[in-house]
Amino acid sequence: MDHNQQRQPEWLITIAEELQRARLDNEAVFARKTCIYKVPRYLREADQKSYTPSVVSIGPYHRQNDLLFPMERHKWRAFYQTISRHKHDFKLYFDSIANLEAKARGSYEGEINIESNDFVKMMVLDGCFILELFRGMKDGFEKLGYAKGDPVFSICGTLDSIRRDMVKLENQIPMYILDALLTLQTGDYHDKNALVNMGNTFFAPLIPTDEPFHKDKEFSSDPLPLHCLHLFREGLVSKGLILPKRTKKLWKRRLSRNVVGKPTTQITYCVSQLRDSGIRFRKRETDQFWDIKYKNSILEIPRILIHEGTKSIFRNLVAFEECHPECSNEITAYLIFMNNLIDSAVDVGFLHYKGIIEHWLGNDNDVADLFNRLCQEVVADLNNSYLSGLTDKINNCRDNRWTTWTADLRHKYFQNPWATFSVIAAMVLLLVTILQTFYTVFPYYKPPS
Q1: pLDDT at residue 206 in the model
Q2: CB of 163 within 8 A of CB of 205?
Q3: Where are the domains of the chain?
Q4: Second label for 214, Cα 20 to 30 Å away, from 88, 276, 356, 424?
Q5: pTM of the model
Q6: Residue 295: φ, ψ to 5°
Protein backbone atom coordinates (compact mmCIF):
# COMPACT_ATOMS: atom_id res chain seq x y z
CA MET A 1 0.00 0.00 0.00
CA ASP A 2 2.72 2.42 1.04
CA HIS A 3 4.80 1.26 -1.94
CA ASN A 4 1.98 2.13 -4.37
CA GLN A 5 1.49 5.54 -2.76
CA GLN A 6 5.19 6.27 -3.20
CA ARG A 7 5.09 5.33 -6.93
CA GLN A 8 1.83 7.13 -7.71
CA PRO A 9 3.23 10.70 -7.86
CA GLU A 10 5.95 9.59 -10.36
CA TRP A 11 3.33 7.90 -12.53
CA LEU A 12 1.15 10.99 -12.47
CA ILE A 13 4.11 13.17 -13.35
CA THR A 14 4.84 10.96 -16.38
CA ILE A 15 1.24 11.25 -17.58
CA ALA A 16 1.30 15.02 -17.11
CA GLU A 17 4.50 15.28 -19.12
CA GLU A 18 3.04 13.22 -21.96
CA LEU A 19 -0.11 15.36 -22.01
CA GLN A 20 1.99 18.52 -22.08
CA ARG A 21 4.02 17.12 -24.99
CA ALA A 22 0.79 16.18 -26.79
CA ARG A 23 -0.57 19.71 -26.30
CA LEU A 24 2.56 21.23 -27.81
CA ASP A 25 2.49 18.77 -30.72
CA ASN A 26 -1.14 19.63 -31.34
CA GLU A 27 -0.41 23.35 -31.35
CA ALA A 28 2.49 22.77 -33.74
CA VAL A 29 0.20 20.93 -36.16
CA PHE A 30 -2.30 23.80 -36.15
CA ALA A 31 0.46 26.40 -36.50
CA ARG A 32 2.08 24.57 -39.41
CA LYS A 33 0.85 25.80 -42.77
CA THR A 34 2.41 23.29 -45.11
CA CYS A 35 2.63 24.29 -48.74
CA ILE A 36 5.94 22.75 -49.87
CA TYR A 37 5.65 18.98 -50.10
CA LYS A 38 7.67 15.89 -50.76
CA VAL A 39 6.40 14.23 -53.92
CA PRO A 40 4.27 11.20 -52.96
CA ARG A 41 6.03 7.90 -53.54
CA TYR A 42 3.38 6.58 -55.94
CA LEU A 43 4.06 9.57 -58.22
CA ARG A 44 7.84 9.61 -57.83
CA GLU A 45 8.19 5.91 -58.69
CA ALA A 46 6.64 6.57 -62.10
CA ASP A 47 9.25 9.18 -63.08
CA GLN A 48 11.83 10.24 -60.51
CA LYS A 49 13.78 12.44 -62.91
CA SER A 50 10.88 14.85 -63.45
CA TYR A 51 10.79 15.78 -59.76
CA THR A 52 14.53 16.02 -59.06
CA PRO A 53 16.37 19.31 -59.81
CA SER A 54 19.16 19.00 -62.35
CA VAL A 55 21.31 22.12 -61.75
CA VAL A 56 20.17 24.04 -58.65
CA SER A 57 18.78 23.21 -55.22
CA ILE A 58 16.20 25.61 -53.78
CA GLY A 59 15.17 24.98 -50.17
CA PRO A 60 16.12 22.07 -47.89
CA TYR A 61 14.99 18.90 -49.66
CA HIS A 62 17.85 18.59 -52.18
CA ARG A 63 20.57 20.68 -50.57
CA GLN A 64 22.75 17.60 -49.94
CA ASN A 65 22.75 16.54 -53.57
CA ASP A 66 26.42 16.62 -54.60
CA LEU A 67 25.53 17.19 -58.25
CA LEU A 68 23.96 20.54 -57.35
CA PHE A 69 26.85 21.94 -55.27
CA PRO A 70 28.48 23.90 -58.15
CA MET A 71 25.54 26.31 -58.19
CA GLU A 72 26.15 27.31 -54.55
CA ARG A 73 29.08 29.54 -55.59
CA HIS A 74 26.75 31.40 -57.97
CA LYS A 75 24.27 31.94 -55.13
CA TRP A 76 27.05 33.67 -53.17
CA ARG A 77 27.78 35.78 -56.26
CA ALA A 78 24.12 36.82 -56.38
CA PHE A 79 24.15 37.73 -52.69
CA TYR A 80 27.35 39.74 -53.12
CA GLN A 81 25.92 41.65 -56.09
CA THR A 82 22.73 42.34 -54.10
CA ILE A 83 24.35 43.87 -51.02
CA SER A 84 26.96 45.71 -53.10
CA ARG A 85 24.34 47.28 -55.35
CA HIS A 86 22.20 48.42 -52.43
CA LYS A 87 25.16 49.18 -50.12
CA HIS A 88 23.71 46.99 -47.37
CA ASP A 89 25.34 45.21 -44.46
CA PHE A 90 24.85 41.45 -44.99
CA LYS A 91 23.67 41.13 -41.36
CA LEU A 92 20.53 43.06 -42.26
CA TYR A 93 19.36 40.18 -44.45
CA PHE A 94 20.14 37.46 -41.95
CA ASP A 95 18.44 39.30 -39.09
CA SER A 96 15.32 39.90 -41.15
CA ILE A 97 14.94 36.28 -42.27
CA ALA A 98 15.77 34.96 -38.78
CA ASN A 99 12.47 36.48 -37.65
CA LEU A 100 10.67 34.30 -40.20
CA GLU A 101 12.54 31.06 -39.48
CA ALA A 102 9.81 29.33 -37.45
CA LYS A 103 7.14 30.25 -39.99
CA ALA A 104 9.33 29.10 -42.87
CA ARG A 105 10.07 25.75 -41.24
CA GLY A 106 6.32 25.23 -40.86
CA SER A 107 5.85 25.63 -44.60
CA TYR A 108 7.64 22.34 -45.27
CA GLU A 109 6.22 18.87 -44.96
CA GLY A 110 7.79 17.12 -41.97
CA GLU A 111 10.62 18.29 -39.75
CA ILE A 112 13.61 20.03 -41.33
CA ASN A 113 16.75 18.81 -39.58
CA ILE A 114 18.95 21.80 -40.32
CA GLU A 115 20.65 23.93 -37.66
CA SER A 116 19.07 27.37 -37.23
CA ASN A 117 21.91 29.48 -38.66
CA ASP A 118 22.28 27.18 -41.66
CA PHE A 119 18.54 27.31 -42.32
CA VAL A 120 18.49 31.11 -42.27
CA LYS A 121 21.58 31.26 -44.51
CA MET A 122 19.89 28.89 -46.97
CA MET A 123 16.76 31.08 -47.10
CA VAL A 124 18.80 34.25 -47.68
CA LEU A 125 21.05 32.80 -50.38
CA ASP A 126 18.26 31.02 -52.24
CA GLY A 127 15.97 34.02 -51.98
CA CYS A 128 18.51 36.54 -53.25
CA PHE A 129 19.46 34.14 -56.05
CA ILE A 130 15.84 33.95 -57.20
CA LEU A 131 15.33 37.71 -56.99
CA GLU A 132 18.44 38.34 -59.08
CA LEU A 133 17.07 36.02 -61.76
CA PHE A 134 13.69 37.77 -61.64
CA ARG A 135 15.28 41.21 -61.84
CA GLY A 136 17.64 40.16 -64.62
CA MET A 137 14.83 38.96 -66.87
CA LYS A 138 12.89 42.17 -66.24
CA ASP A 139 15.62 44.82 -66.42
CA GLY A 140 18.57 43.03 -68.01
CA PHE A 141 21.39 41.16 -66.29
CA GLU A 142 24.09 43.52 -67.49
CA LYS A 143 22.33 46.43 -65.76
CA LEU A 144 22.60 44.46 -62.53
CA GLY A 145 26.37 44.21 -62.89
CA TYR A 146 26.78 40.78 -64.50
CA ALA A 147 29.08 40.14 -67.43
CA LYS A 148 27.67 39.62 -70.90
CA GLY A 149 27.36 35.88 -71.47
CA ASP A 150 27.51 35.08 -67.73
CA PRO A 151 27.12 31.26 -67.34
CA VAL A 152 24.14 31.74 -64.98
CA PHE A 153 22.98 35.35 -64.95
CA SER A 154 22.26 35.88 -68.63
CA ILE A 155 19.62 34.78 -71.12
CA CYS A 156 21.88 31.98 -72.32
CA GLY A 157 23.82 29.34 -70.42
CA THR A 158 21.95 27.28 -67.84
CA LEU A 159 19.01 29.66 -67.41
CA ASP A 160 16.48 27.35 -69.07
CA SER A 161 17.44 24.45 -66.82
CA ILE A 162 17.35 26.69 -63.74
CA ARG A 163 13.90 27.94 -64.68
CA ARG A 164 12.55 24.39 -64.98
CA ASP A 165 14.14 23.42 -61.64
CA MET A 166 12.40 26.37 -59.98
CA VAL A 167 8.92 24.98 -60.75
CA LYS A 168 9.57 21.57 -59.19
CA LEU A 169 7.45 20.84 -56.14
CA GLU A 170 10.31 19.89 -53.81
CA ASN A 171 12.51 22.77 -54.93
CA GLN A 172 10.79 25.75 -53.32
CA ILE A 173 11.08 28.40 -50.62
CA PRO A 174 8.07 30.38 -49.31
CA MET A 175 7.13 33.43 -51.33
CA TYR A 176 6.99 35.61 -48.21
CA ILE A 177 10.75 35.06 -47.86
CA LEU A 178 11.21 36.59 -51.32
CA ASP A 179 8.84 39.41 -50.42
CA ALA A 180 10.77 40.17 -47.21
CA LEU A 181 14.07 40.28 -49.12
CA LEU A 182 12.55 42.46 -51.83
CA THR A 183 11.29 44.83 -49.12
CA LEU A 184 14.85 45.23 -47.83
CA GLN A 185 16.02 46.09 -51.33
CA THR A 186 13.24 48.47 -52.39
CA GLY A 187 11.81 49.84 -49.15
CA ASP A 188 8.78 49.09 -47.00
CA TYR A 189 6.36 50.62 -49.50
CA HIS A 190 7.22 48.66 -52.62
CA ASP A 191 4.42 47.52 -54.91
CA LYS A 192 3.14 44.21 -53.54
CA ASN A 193 2.47 43.02 -57.09
CA ALA A 194 6.01 43.74 -58.26
CA LEU A 195 7.21 40.31 -57.12
CA VAL A 196 4.36 38.53 -58.90
CA ASN A 197 4.91 40.44 -62.12
CA MET A 198 8.65 39.81 -62.11
CA GLY A 199 7.99 36.11 -61.49
CA ASN A 200 5.45 35.91 -64.32
CA THR A 201 7.93 37.51 -66.70
CA PHE A 202 10.65 35.07 -65.65
CA PHE A 203 8.49 31.94 -66.04
CA ALA A 204 6.73 33.06 -69.25
CA PRO A 205 8.93 30.86 -71.53
CA LEU A 206 7.58 27.76 -69.76
CA ILE A 207 3.96 28.46 -70.70
CA PRO A 208 2.92 25.97 -73.43
CA THR A 209 1.08 28.46 -75.66
CA ASP A 210 1.76 30.61 -78.70
CA GLU A 211 1.62 33.91 -76.83
CA PRO A 212 2.50 33.66 -73.16
CA PHE A 213 2.36 36.57 -70.71
CA HIS A 214 3.02 39.91 -72.32
CA LYS A 215 5.92 41.68 -70.64
CA ASP A 216 4.00 44.95 -70.47
CA LYS A 217 0.92 43.40 -68.86
CA GLU A 218 0.52 43.77 -65.12
CA PHE A 219 -0.91 41.07 -62.86
CA SER A 220 -2.11 41.28 -59.29
CA SER A 221 -2.20 38.61 -56.63
CA ASP A 222 -3.77 38.99 -53.20
CA PRO A 223 -2.66 37.19 -51.16
CA LEU A 224 0.81 36.32 -52.43
CA PRO A 225 1.28 32.92 -54.08
CA LEU A 226 2.76 30.29 -51.80
CA HIS A 227 5.97 29.76 -53.80
CA CYS A 228 7.29 29.83 -57.37
CA LEU A 229 5.43 26.72 -58.52
CA HIS A 230 2.18 28.13 -57.12
CA LEU A 231 2.89 31.49 -58.80
CA PHE A 232 3.45 29.75 -62.13
CA ARG A 233 0.27 27.69 -61.77
CA GLU A 234 -1.84 30.71 -60.80
CA GLY A 235 -0.61 32.49 -63.90
CA LEU A 236 -1.73 29.54 -66.02
CA VAL A 237 -5.24 28.97 -64.65
CA SER A 238 -6.35 32.38 -63.39
CA LYS A 239 -6.42 34.10 -66.77
CA GLY A 240 -10.18 34.08 -67.24
CA LEU A 241 -10.99 30.61 -65.90
CA ILE A 242 -14.66 30.48 -64.86
CA LEU A 243 -15.67 27.34 -63.01
CA PRO A 244 -19.22 25.95 -63.27
CA LYS A 245 -21.76 27.31 -60.79
CA ARG A 246 -21.81 24.03 -58.91
CA THR A 247 -18.15 24.52 -58.03
CA LYS A 248 -18.21 27.92 -56.35
CA LYS A 249 -16.34 26.44 -53.42
CA LEU A 250 -12.92 24.92 -53.84
CA TRP A 251 -13.54 21.28 -54.58
CA LYS A 252 -11.30 18.54 -53.31
CA ARG A 253 -9.78 16.28 -55.91
CA ARG A 254 -8.05 13.58 -54.02
CA LEU A 255 -9.85 10.28 -53.43
CA SER A 256 -8.81 7.20 -51.58
CA ARG A 257 -6.97 5.08 -54.09
CA ASN A 258 -9.26 2.17 -53.29
CA VAL A 259 -12.59 3.98 -53.36
CA VAL A 260 -15.35 2.30 -55.35
CA GLY A 261 -18.16 4.71 -56.10
CA LYS A 262 -19.51 7.02 -58.73
CA PRO A 263 -17.29 6.89 -61.83
CA THR A 264 -15.50 10.09 -62.75
CA THR A 265 -16.86 12.17 -65.60
CA GLN A 266 -14.33 11.66 -68.37
CA ILE A 267 -14.45 11.63 -72.11
CA THR A 268 -14.58 7.98 -73.13
CA TYR A 269 -13.60 8.17 -76.80
CA CYS A 270 -10.40 9.08 -78.57
CA VAL A 271 -9.98 11.51 -81.46
CA SER A 272 -10.41 8.86 -84.16
CA GLN A 273 -13.65 7.58 -82.61
CA LEU A 274 -15.05 11.07 -82.17
CA ARG A 275 -14.26 11.90 -85.77
CA ASP A 276 -16.17 8.81 -86.86
CA SER A 277 -19.10 10.13 -84.81
CA GLY A 278 -19.22 13.37 -86.75
CA ILE A 279 -17.47 15.53 -84.17
CA ARG A 280 -15.18 18.05 -85.82
CA PHE A 281 -12.00 19.49 -84.34
CA ARG A 282 -10.88 23.07 -84.55
CA LYS A 283 -8.01 25.08 -83.06
CA ARG A 284 -9.31 27.62 -80.57
CA GLU A 285 -7.68 31.02 -80.91
CA THR A 286 -6.59 31.80 -77.35
CA ASP A 287 -3.42 31.74 -75.26
CA GLN A 288 -5.21 29.81 -72.51
CA PHE A 289 -4.29 26.24 -73.38
CA TRP A 290 -6.89 24.72 -71.04
CA ASP A 291 -9.83 26.73 -72.47
CA ILE A 292 -11.62 23.94 -74.37
CA LYS A 293 -15.08 24.55 -75.85
CA TYR A 294 -17.69 22.26 -77.42
CA LYS A 295 -20.76 23.36 -79.37
CA ASN A 296 -22.73 22.03 -82.34
CA SER A 297 -20.51 18.96 -82.70
CA ILE A 298 -17.38 21.13 -82.92
CA LEU A 299 -14.66 20.59 -80.32
CA GLU A 300 -12.38 23.62 -80.07
CA ILE A 301 -9.02 23.02 -78.39
CA PRO A 302 -6.33 25.71 -77.99
CA ARG A 303 -2.88 25.09 -79.36
CA ILE A 304 -0.36 23.54 -76.99
CA LEU A 305 3.39 23.37 -77.48
CA ILE A 306 5.13 20.20 -76.29
CA HIS A 307 8.91 20.26 -75.72
CA GLU A 308 11.46 18.32 -73.70
CA GLY A 309 10.58 20.12 -70.46
CA THR A 310 6.80 19.79 -70.76
CA LYS A 311 6.59 16.45 -68.97
CA SER A 312 8.43 17.69 -65.89
CA ILE A 313 6.40 20.90 -65.74
CA PHE A 314 3.05 19.13 -65.92
CA ARG A 315 4.09 16.37 -63.51
CA ASN A 316 4.99 18.90 -60.82
CA LEU A 317 1.81 20.89 -61.36
CA VAL A 318 -0.23 17.70 -60.97
CA ALA A 319 1.77 16.73 -57.87
CA PHE A 320 1.02 20.10 -56.26
CA GLU A 321 -2.68 19.74 -57.04
CA GLU A 322 -2.58 16.27 -55.51
CA CYS A 323 -0.80 17.37 -52.32
CA HIS A 324 -2.21 20.79 -51.45
CA PRO A 325 -5.68 20.53 -49.83
CA GLU A 326 -6.75 24.03 -50.84
CA CYS A 327 -5.85 23.65 -54.50
CA SER A 328 -8.37 22.69 -57.16
CA ASN A 329 -7.30 20.54 -60.09
CA GLU A 330 -7.75 22.35 -63.37
CA ILE A 331 -4.38 21.18 -64.73
CA THR A 332 -5.09 17.57 -63.80
CA ALA A 333 -8.55 17.75 -65.40
CA TYR A 334 -7.07 19.14 -68.63
CA LEU A 335 -4.36 16.49 -68.81
CA ILE A 336 -6.79 13.62 -68.17
CA PHE A 337 -9.05 15.03 -70.89
CA MET A 338 -6.18 15.15 -73.38
CA ASN A 339 -4.97 11.72 -72.30
CA ASN A 340 -8.38 10.23 -73.06
CA LEU A 341 -8.51 12.02 -76.41
CA ILE A 342 -5.11 10.69 -77.47
CA ASP A 343 -4.95 6.94 -77.87
CA SER A 344 -2.23 6.65 -80.48
CA ALA A 345 0.14 8.49 -82.80
CA VAL A 346 -2.72 8.69 -85.32
CA ASP A 347 -4.67 10.91 -82.92
CA VAL A 348 -1.61 13.09 -82.30
CA GLY A 349 -0.98 13.38 -86.04
CA PHE A 350 -4.53 14.57 -86.68
CA LEU A 351 -4.37 17.16 -83.85
CA HIS A 352 -1.04 18.33 -85.25
CA TYR A 353 -2.64 18.64 -88.71
CA LYS A 354 -5.37 20.77 -87.14
CA GLY A 355 -2.80 23.03 -85.46
CA ILE A 356 -3.81 21.95 -81.95
CA ILE A 357 -0.59 20.16 -80.99
CA GLU A 358 2.87 21.41 -81.87
CA HIS A 359 5.80 19.42 -80.56
CA TRP A 360 9.58 19.28 -80.63
CA LEU A 361 9.81 15.61 -79.69
CA GLY A 362 11.06 12.78 -81.86
CA ASN A 363 7.74 11.67 -83.32
CA ASP A 364 4.00 11.51 -82.69
CA ASN A 365 4.38 8.27 -80.73
CA ASP A 366 6.48 10.12 -78.15
CA VAL A 367 3.72 12.71 -77.69
CA ALA A 368 1.04 10.05 -77.30
CA ASP A 369 3.22 8.25 -74.75
CA LEU A 370 3.78 11.50 -72.83
CA PHE A 371 0.06 12.21 -72.39
CA ASN A 372 -0.73 8.57 -71.64
CA ARG A 373 1.78 8.50 -68.77
CA LEU A 374 1.29 11.94 -67.21
CA CYS A 375 -1.73 11.01 -65.09
CA GLN A 376 -1.09 7.29 -64.88
CA GLU A 377 -0.94 7.22 -61.07
CA VAL A 378 -3.41 10.04 -60.38
CA VAL A 379 -6.87 9.38 -58.96
CA ALA A 380 -8.99 12.52 -59.34
CA ASP A 381 -12.69 13.23 -58.93
CA LEU A 382 -13.59 15.08 -62.12
CA ASN A 383 -17.36 15.12 -61.66
CA ASN A 384 -17.26 18.80 -60.74
CA SER A 385 -14.29 19.87 -62.82
CA TYR A 386 -14.52 22.72 -65.29
CA LEU A 387 -14.64 20.15 -68.12
CA SER A 388 -17.28 17.81 -66.67
CA GLY A 389 -20.29 19.34 -68.47
CA LEU A 390 -18.39 19.43 -71.74
CA THR A 391 -17.37 15.77 -71.54
CA ASP A 392 -20.98 14.74 -70.83
CA LYS A 393 -22.12 16.46 -74.02
CA ILE A 394 -19.37 14.85 -76.09
CA ASN A 395 -20.09 11.37 -74.74
CA ASN A 396 -23.83 11.78 -75.35
CA CYS A 397 -23.19 12.86 -78.92
CA ARG A 398 -20.93 9.86 -79.55
CA ASP A 399 -23.47 7.47 -78.01
CA ASN A 400 -26.26 8.72 -80.29
CA ARG A 401 -26.72 5.96 -82.90
CA TRP A 402 -28.31 8.19 -85.55
CA THR A 403 -25.49 10.70 -85.24
CA THR A 404 -22.93 7.92 -85.48
CA TRP A 405 -24.59 6.38 -88.57
CA THR A 406 -24.85 9.66 -90.46
CA ALA A 407 -21.33 10.60 -89.50
CA ASP A 408 -20.02 7.23 -90.65
CA LEU A 409 -21.80 7.67 -93.96
CA ARG A 410 -20.37 11.15 -94.40
CA HIS A 411 -16.88 9.99 -93.38
CA LYS A 412 -16.82 7.10 -95.83
CA TYR A 413 -18.60 8.55 -98.84
CA PHE A 414 -18.46 12.33 -98.69
CA GLN A 415 -14.83 13.03 -97.89
CA ASN A 416 -14.09 14.71 -101.26
CA PRO A 417 -15.99 16.02 -104.32
CA TRP A 418 -15.22 12.97 -106.47
CA ALA A 419 -16.53 10.59 -103.80
CA THR A 420 -19.65 12.72 -103.43
CA PHE A 421 -20.17 12.77 -107.21
CA SER A 422 -19.78 8.99 -107.35
CA VAL A 423 -22.36 8.46 -104.64
CA ILE A 424 -24.85 10.80 -106.33
CA ALA A 425 -24.25 9.12 -109.68
CA ALA A 426 -24.81 5.70 -108.14
CA MET A 427 -28.04 6.87 -106.52
CA VAL A 428 -29.29 8.32 -109.82
CA LEU A 429 -28.39 5.10 -111.62
CA LEU A 430 -30.21 3.08 -108.96
CA LEU A 431 -33.27 5.30 -109.30
CA VAL A 432 -33.26 4.97 -113.10
CA THR A 433 -32.94 1.18 -112.78
CA ILE A 434 -35.90 1.04 -110.37
CA LEU A 435 -38.06 3.18 -112.67
CA GLN A 436 -37.08 1.12 -115.71
CA THR A 437 -37.95 -2.10 -113.89
CA PHE A 438 -41.26 -0.63 -112.74
CA TYR A 439 -42.36 0.38 -116.22
CA THR A 440 -41.27 -3.02 -117.58
CA VAL A 441 -43.22 -5.02 -115.00
CA PHE A 442 -46.25 -2.78 -114.50
CA PRO A 443 -48.03 -3.58 -117.86
CA TYR A 444 -48.29 -7.28 -116.95
CA TYR A 445 -50.43 -6.46 -113.94
CA LYS A 446 -52.50 -3.72 -115.55
CA PRO A 447 -53.00 -4.30 -119.31
CA PRO A 448 -53.95 -1.27 -121.38
CA SER A 449 -57.73 -0.74 -121.69
Answers
A1: 92
A2: yes
A3: 41-237, 250-402
A4: 356
A5: 0.80
A6: -160, 135
